[in-house]
Amino acid sequence: MAAVQSVSASQIAKIILSVRDKQPLIHCLTNNVVKGFTANALLAAGAAPAMVEHQDEAEEFAAIADALLINLGTLDEPQMRSMRRALFSATSANRPWVLDPVAVGPLTTRTEFAREILDFHPTLIRGNASEILALAGEAEGGRGVDSSDESEAALRAAEQLAATGKTTVLVTGKIDYIVSSTQKGAVANGHVLMTRVTGVGCAMGALAAACLAVSPSPFLAAAATAVWLGVAGELAAEASKRPGSFQVALLDALDSIDEEIISTRANFHAAMEPLN
Amino acid sequence: MAAVQSVSASQIAKIILSVRDKQPLIHCLTNNVVKGFTANALLAAGAAPAMVEHQDEAEEFAAIADALLINLGTLDEPQMRSMRRALFSATSANRPWVLDPVAVGPLTTRTEFAREILDFHPTLIRGNASEILALAGEAEGGRGVDSSDESEAALRAAEQLAATGKTTVLVTGKIDYIVSSTQKGAVANGHVLMTRVTGVGCAMGALAAACLAVSPSPFLAAAATAVWLGVAGELAAEASKRPGSFQVALLDALDSIDEEIISTRANFHAAMEPLN
Amino acid sequence: MAAVQSVSASQIAKIILSVRDKQPLIHCLTNNVVKGFTANALLAAGAAPAMVEHQDEAEEFAAIADALLINLGTLDEPQMRSMRRALFSATSANRPWVLDPVAVGPLTTRTEFAREILDFHPTLIRGNASEILALAGEAEGGRGVDSSDESEAALRAAEQLAATGKTTVLVTGKIDYIVSSTQKGAVANGHVLMTRVTGVGCAMGALAAACLAVSPSPFLAAAATAVWLGVAGELAAEASKRPGSFQVALLDALDSIDEEIISTRANFHAAMEPLN
Questions:
Q1: Which residues pair with B98 in a beta bridge?
Q2: Where are the extended beta strands (E) located within C112-210?
Q3: Most exposed among A208, B6, B48, C230, judged by the fewest C-beta atoms under 10 Å?
Q4: Is the separation of the CB atoms in A152 and A276 below 8 Å?
Q5: Cα atoms found within 13 Å of the Cα of residue A1, Cβ hemisphere only
Q6: Closest Cα to residue C82, out of C101, C108, C61?
Q7: Pairing of strands C268-269, C183-187
Q8: B40 vs A: CB within 8 A
Q9: CA distances from C106 to A65, C32, C103, C116 (A)
């Protein structure tokens, strides 16, 4: 059983400021729908994105970059080869990496691939409830990229994935849950408009990689990611109620968030048991 | 000869509300320039986009999704394989599908491929005049993605493509024409700024797939698509005269359009003969 | 030694107006992160973008289009084949072409490929200081897409690349330098927010291709490109200080810039020696 542990707003703010200060270089092997938005989200956050795809170069670059994102959204055979070689290189160089198992469950190839690369022990797995359930082998997941299970339902699956002690899991939904082998937490920031813009979840995986690159712990990095993006969503929804302008405002908010906003808005709960 | 038939604003509004209510899952095999914008346009419309490219998964997913979009904009060999398998699967499962024959005519590979997959009988073909002419074998089309023929000129080609009774054709331009084996119509909504943003035409193909998924007839789905996007373009042009902010306003307008706006603005003409 | 030569604001304005008037068709073989933004930047500038990737079609299309962009950002094996064939076709048809050697230096495959295609004599090379140094074989460049050398440092490398008289080099940074075998210049327009949006540098390569298509000289085309985009960045920064809305404003500004704005704002210096 995971213990309850609190994360303070000032710890989260410190991660955000550290991303802006250190500008970690994030190697993104991600899907073709969201590459532009992911790069813009990382730049808005203060990090440096790079998408290097050729299998030889992906291996070279994964050791140069500060963290690696593996997102399975539009997986194909050449990308699988690049991902395997980048993972070998990144883990050999002790770089943190994030697995975003997009649409794992109903689709066979990516589900098998996702389970295969679990052997590289992702520092963080970010997925919705369906994806986390499917990755742990407990369910066949949803029809696609949207979550059809509530994130609470995936908590047991997350605990199972985190049990080795080598992986932390961020289960995203209306409430985001963070589960490691020793800690649990929940973040209640965010806004429903975030589901009306493509790539917000994928950008979250990339942002998590940036936070991992500067954080003393994956658990804290996951908390900072969920709060940063969630608060940005809240600020953006105050600026706009329509998806086109919301997307623009979301990038602006990733950039404008400061310590004071975090201290006022961060909605991190250590006591998640009643929700379980 | 196709008969003239009217479509009412309330029929169109009903399709729009139905997309928002049912949130059809649209499998998009589309080009790499517009994947993000296409997904955002579908989300703004209330539909659920998914781009699944791997050939095994494309076959799997086409039977799960509610409709399929085949857009030839950046066709390559792996995508041709995925498209063939997705088409086999989608048509076996009786899913509607849209063919967007981007730049067919001057480019050999895609022109041959487009004619090959006509055997799967697209529920709807959406193209500009050059593309429709080339697809029907009547002309070699334009230099690229922009139409160099007026859409009226392609009406005969559209009638020919629709003659089997299995396909409806949406010829887009300043005026959009809709041609089935039994009906004809024209939509005069839209704004010239729509040609200053990449992917508006491609998003129209995706929106058509979403409308097909909830519509009792392809003809009505095509009319709803042309009116919905055209009116959104008009609203966006009232909000902005520059292409960057126009693109943002266009997504907002896809979301904000309601029954009242449709009843005021829909410009559907059944009597298209004088224009022919 | 290159001679100093002045370029007037009215010469630059003439190029901009000519792009809008002639709407040159630009064949972009570019990276998957920026395809949408590149197309939108070209459309905002008044040019016509087309991304044709299949190797047979890339060869066909390069002879149809008015200029070719080769950007190495997400190079893979199929794209290398398409690029070789497009280059063969474009240069046979005497079309101008731009090489954007993204991240050349630290990554082996693209560095070798970039040097290989120098044999096709790019009409213009656009890169940051690291990339220009690495391309000329003088340094191993930076960690990724961002410049880690000041652009002044790359001037000698640029002179070496331009020495054949067949290539002009645009070294971009806080100040942009233009070097041909007979002329040198510097442009001091721009804003730091341009580094917070993905694809601004890549869009610059595409814009350069559009300017080359209508310009009497590559040197003047490079000057017009650097001034047009740089002034657009300044105008956008006056409209917004955050990266999301800055990106939108940048596209709007590419469209809104006119002769008067250019005459007021163009910051072209012929006398670059003191900076060297």
A1: B69, B124
A2: 124-128, 168-172, 176-179, 183-187
A3: B6
A4: yes
A5: 5
A6: C61
A7: antiparallel
A8: yes
A9: 11, 20, 7, 16
Burial class (CB in 10 A: 0-12, 13-18, 19+), C256: middle
Q: How far is C265 from chain B (nearest CA, A)?
A: 20
Hey, which bits of B30-103 come out as E strands? Answer: 48-50, 67-71, 97-100
Contact C247 A48 (CB under 8 A): no
**Helix and strand totals (H; E) in chain A:** 11, 10
Do the Cβ atoms of B106 and C64 come closer than 8 Å?
yes
- More confident position, C89 or A144: C89
Q: Is the CB of residue C171 less than 8 Å from the CB of residue C129?
A: yes
**Interface contact C107, partner B, CB < 8 A:** no
**Residues from chain B contacting residue A34 (CB–CB below 8 Å):** 36
Query: Could you tell me if B18 lies within 8 Å of chain A, comparing CB atoms?
Result: no
| Residue C220: CB atoms within 10 Å | 23
Chain A nearest C-alpha distance from B93 (Å): 16
The Cβ of residue C76 has, within 10 Å, a number of other Cβ atoms equal to 19
- Measured between CB atoms, which of C43, C50, C247 is closest to B243? C43
Q: Please give the Cα distance from C263 to C276 (Å, whole number).
A: 26
Stated pTM of the model: 0.95
Question: Is residue B145 predicted with pLDDT exceeding 60?
Answer: no
Residues in chain C within 8 Å Cβ distance of B109: 54, 56-57
Task: Give the best residue of B42, B56, B255 to mutate against chain A (max A CB count within 10 A).
Answer: B255
* Cα radius of gyration rounded to whole Å, chain A: 17
Contact C61 B107 (CB under 8 A): yes
- Best CA proximity match to A40, nearest among A253, A251, A268, A212: A251
Residue A121 CB neighbours (<10 A): 14
∠ CA A110-A115-A120, nearest 5°, is 115
Q: How many CB atoms are closer than 10 A to CB B137?
A: 12
- Distance, in Å, from the CA atom of A162 to the CA atom of C220, rounded to the nearest integer, reads 59
Token reading at B76? 């390559």
Contact (Cβ atoms closer than 8 angstroms) between residue C85 and residue C55? yes
Give pLDDT tens digits for B43-60: 999 999 999 999 999 999
As a whole number of angstroms, the distance between CA A201 and CA A222 comes to: 13
Reported as half-sphere exposure (CB side, CA atoms, 13 A), residue B77 has a value of 8
User: In this complex, which chains have at least 3 CB pairs below 8 Å with chain B?
Assistant: A, C
Q: What's the Cα-to-Cα distance from A106 to each of A103, A147, A169, A235, B63, rounded to whole Å?
A: 7, 12, 20, 34, 11
Q: Is C247 on the interface with B (CB under 8 A)?
A: yes
B43 Cα to chain A: minimum distance (Å): 5
pLDDT tens for each residue of chain C, 276 residues long: 444 458 999 999 999 999 999 999 999 999 999 999 999 999 999 999 999 999 999 999 999 999 999 999 999 999 999 999 999 999 999 999 999 999 999 999 999 999 999 999 999 999 999 999 999 987 544 444 445 556 667 999 999 999 989 999 999 999 999 999 999 999 999 999 999 999 999 999 999 999 999 998 999 999 999 999 999 999 999 999 999 999 999 999 999 999 999 999 999 998 554 443
Mean pLDDT, residues B226-235: 98
| d(C-alpha C245, C-alpha C242), whole Å | 6
Cross-chain Cβ contact A32/C32 below 8 Å: yes
Q: How far is CA A68 from CA A12, A52, A74, in A?
A: 21, 11, 17
Q: Does B263 touch chain A (CB under 8 A)?
A: no
Q: What angle do CA A229, A230, A235 make, to 5 degrees?
A: 95
Burial of C150 (0-12, 13-18, 19+ CB in 10 A): middle
Encoded tokens for A32: 């073709």
